[in-house]
Amino acid sequence: MVFHTNDIMDVSNGLKEYEVVYLAALVGMNVEEKNRIIDHLAKYMAPGALLMLRSAHGARAFLYPVVDTNDLGGFEVLSVFHPTDEVINSVVIARKYPMVLLPNKCCSDEVQAFKPLSNHGNNMIEELVVEEN
User: Fold this and answer.
1) Is 74 exposed, middle or buried (0-12, 13-18, 19+ CB in 10 A)?
2) Angle at 113 between CA 117 and CA 56, to 5 degrees
3) β-strand 50-55 against 20-23: which pairing, if any?
4) What percent of the residues of the chain are helix, what percent strand, and what percent coil, each to the nearest 5?
5) Which helix (H) or strand (E) holds 113?
6) Measuring CA to CA, which residue among 56, 51, 99, 98 is closest to residue 77?
7) CA–CA dist 64, 56 (Å, integer)
8) Regarding the domain delimited by 8-121, which CATH topology (the fold level of the hierarchy) does it fall under?
9) How confident is the prediction along the chain (133 residues), in pLDDT tens digits per residue?
10) What residues contact residue 75 under an 8 Å CB cut-off, 6+ apart?
11) Per-position b or e across 2-32, b if 16+ CB within 10 A of its CB
């Protein structure tokens, strides 16, 4: 396993080499900046690659920015985990949609994202919250 630390906005085609991209919680300290970074990743990551995002939930959002799964355009959300113990960050796992040529309205050659698990535009999201008794 190899880790590279870099300003993600300076990386473009190099992202296609990786099967997993890990985005730390403090990358993008406001919604607009974080969404700009996620859009950049959606543009340059390899189709089918996984994106692991750190987020926050509930009162923990006072410490770390929240990633809204609705803002993950270009990605299929696979899982969301919100811890309830001393761990602060939530984890979101998403996969970049593979791009395939699908005919649109009979004869167009437009490129569209293939979304095999989408249900009329809604991602199938698994959320898991663990509570200790």
Assistant:
1) middle
2) 60
3) parallel
4) 25, 30, 50
5) strand 111-113
6) 51
7) 6
8) Rossmann fold (3.40.50)
9) 777 778 889 988 888 999 999 988 888 888 889 899 999 999 999 999 999 998 888 777 777 788 889 989 899 999 999 888 887 788 899 999 986 555 555 554 555 555 555 444 454 455 555 666 5
10) 38, 42, 51, 94, 95, 96, 97
11) eeeeeebeeeeeebeeeeebebebebbeeee
Looking up tokens 């949609």, which residue turns up? 97
Q: How far apart are the first and last CA of the chain?
A: 36
Task: Find where tokens 């299929």 sit.
Answer: 76
Question: What span, in angstroms and rounded, lies between the C-alpha atoms of 54 and 130?
Answer: 17
pTM of the model: 0.69
